[in-house]
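During the no-cost extension, the postdoctoral fellow (Dr. R.K.) reprocessed legacy sequence entries with the updated structure-token encoder. One reprocessed record is reproduced below for audit purposes.
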Amino acid sequence: MDRDLGTRDAGLSAESGDAPDDGIVTLSIAELDADPHGVFRRYRPLTPFIAHESGSYIVLRSGDVERFARDPRLRQSETEYPEIHGITGGLLFDLFDYSMLMSNGAVHRRRRSPFSRTFAARLMMEMRPRIRRTAEELVAEWYEEEDVDLVQRYAALIPARTISDLLGLPKDDIPEFTSLVYQVTRVVSFLFQPEDLPELEDAARRLFDYVEDTLNARRRKPKEDFLSAFVASADAAGELSPFEIITQIVTLIIGGTDTTRVAAAEQVALLLQDRAQWDEVCREPALIPGAVVEALRYEPSVASLARIPLEDIEVDGRVLPAGQFLILSTMSAMRDEQLYARPDVFDIHRTDHPRLPLVFGGGPHRCLGEALARVELEEGLAALSSRIPQLELAGDPPRVQGHSGIRRIGEMHVAWRR
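Re-encoded structure tokens follow.
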């Protein structure tokens, strides 16, 4: 598809906001990444979905996104996403082909079920004191410096240390496996070029090799940790192939580090840009859960879900064709005027959040690590606000980049006076 096909070529007047003749607007990645919230705000009242230059459709409205996330007439995307981007083999392709995240039906249940008990909400709540202790130790490590990059020195390390603790991975391995994760996740964010693929494939190979070596070490010499118990149980059950076992652990490491890293930094950035709300959180820790949920809504770390219709589906008189790759934009849905009052206002006192926030997906594919992510974000914010209430941004706020998949975040320098 022509990368230059935008709103003007699609027949939509920027001044008038008239709908195009064919009813579907096609936008480029550049247009979407330049101002995704502005694009979604503009088109939500006009159309239930827009077209993406990749050939996908982006579903915009909260009701449709919520419904399609759990609609049995749609399935998870399996390998369509990498194929759209010219990835037809290698470990980047296998990550989609063999992961629980992109699978469906009995295959999905078989791959996911060994982890459901481990990530139960009650067990994650039991980890809360340990996660709080990790956050406080991190603050203590750099408190005397009075100026740090909060992304690298705090937001990235809370989930990385938590997942390494949960899986029994050595803390010395954290810098290596998190660096590999951040490279691999570029593939699911439209934030790569074809010439980047050899480098990203190499990162995937090294990440898979790391997990395989770790699992084999547990087989030879089991420990009292999750990985030892998991690999022994999986080998005995025989329901997962050796490569499926590796891929599920790779998936857990990816899901347990990158998305929370972005969310943990961005929630602090949003609060520091609204000093009154930051001060409220510092004075009243009971406001922290609401602040976390509102930050996830306002600037989510995961911008979308992927689905494929199994049949033609009509939406407001327009048809989403069977087999069409859909980007269910949680990013758009969580700023939808039909769901939220004043959706473009960041407000930690908001009372109109749905019971199940869209950022964690829906249906059988709802995020396995939702409870863990909430605990990490809440305890990370609590440790920081209680120890350094005088915290402030040092320079420009970080820019969260991307309109689809896992978003990226740049450096975020903060400073404080002791």
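Residues 26-415 form a domain with the Cytochrome p450 fold (CATH 1.10.630.10). The longest strand covers residues 305-309. The remaining legacy entries will be reprocessed before the final report is submitted.
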